Amino acid sequence: MTDELTDLLDTALYREIASQALYTAAWDKTQDPGAKALIKELAEEELKHSQAIKRLKEKGLEKGGWQRDRISDLKISEYLIGPDTIEEAGLQETLVFAMKREQQAIEFYSKMMSVMRDEAAKRLCAKLVQEELKHKLKLETLYDNLFYSED
Q: Which of 14, 56, 105, 108 is least enclosed, having the fewest CB within 10 Å?
């Protein structure tokens, strides 16, 4: 594994662990039951991501690459102003916060992909962008259904 790829995996792992810690800490600091449930789910998702990245570090990347799916982007988070923290946040604020974090991750891995020289690292960045897009779509769809659905 190249140094570039190892550094990318280490960075991705750090980001997932930091996100999990953020959500875990916020869980105790909100009273909103909907926000608590969402925060718990987000922390569990970040744990799964960190475990997947650890497996990649141990086993290496598969040859051949991944299939790129076409993932919709509702772009809801791009038009919302969100809180800087989710401590004591309600469900809506928690969703906006999480959508914004996913958008930041998409932007980060997209930028990383453009500066990587190693092809395996570029493919990994593309895969991580896809994963973050899936998470963002899930959150934006939930937000849309909860706060913009027409009766």
A: 14
